[in-house]
Amino acid sequence: MKYFECTSCHHQIYFMDYQCDHCHSHIGYVASEKYMGTFKIESDATWVAQNTSFKSTLFKPCRNYSLYQNCNWLIPADDDNVYCESCQLTHTILDLSQAENITYWSRLEMAKRRFLYLTQRLHIMPRPKKSDTDPYGLRFDFLMPNDDQPVLTGHANGIITLNASEADVVYREKTRENMGENYRTLLGHFRHESGHFYFNVMQYLHPELIEEFRLYFGDERLDYSEALQRHYNEGPPLNWQESYISTYATAHPWEDWAETWAHYLHMMETLETAYYAGISIQGNGTTLNQLNFEECPIGAKDFEATLQNWVTLTFNLNALNRSMGLADAYPFKLTDTVKDKLRFIHRHLLTFVFENNHPS
């Protein structure tokens, strides 16, 4: 993620913040400008941008900020929409008469906004789903399960459903332990499930890539239900680490794609943050390579250098975490086979570009 600064005091501001910690100016993200702004509030519906580089001057807060203080994105004051580009994608939310649901909904939306930031940087930000048959739109349903209605997190036909219990840290950690996973986050859910959506987009826009996809991920025509049942009954195959990023990736080519897609997004945002922070690592000259950015990793021409930087960065992130007595920040291993899958994604990422390629 880029580093942003407050226009008023020039201190660093963070993507999820509503106010500058230093001067207390009001701040927010303007998707149309692809940047964080500093604002002077003239009225509830009129915020004046202090960023002189912005094309517009007058903005309004998203309705979910006005009603719930649950969104820090703004839209131009003359926009007909009352919801921002992120909140327009949310179709179903929780029962907000229950106080804890407001907290869970807030956490879900924060993770979604961070996910969408990266899709915008990659030029693949989805638009709201217009109809059940719309193959290019996306919507999110946040649902809380009960005794009569369980909720499974998943994707189907451009609709991503998230079990809102995942926003409960204790629930999520217990689920991670029960599933034998070494990583489980809200952001990871958004990135994984979006992989299924973007696979569908690839099929619609460029079906000629499917044969190449099968070389790396396998034949997606394999019966999904049977494959998933076999995975839960038998577990991953022996030596799965040689070819897959996670045990769940072994279940079916669709899941292998979604898991690898999520890791590509993890890689891009984390490396972009390191790039804008100016982080470099000397390396030891033998087994650990240096980290040196010749270009921003987003859209990098030299993906081999990006992969090398990722291995070096995550090794050191894990070492720093262990120094604090924490679990590894990135508890995964990239084998040559997994790297080939990541290369496929990077090579064909422009296939998914939405700003110019997909129907409105």
From TrEMBL:
Domain called Zinc-ribbon: residue spans: 4-98
Gene3D superfamilies: 3.40.390.70
Superkingdom of the source species: Bacteria
Name listed for the protein in its UniProt record: Zinc-ribbon domain-containing protein
Native organism: Acinetobacter shaoyimingii
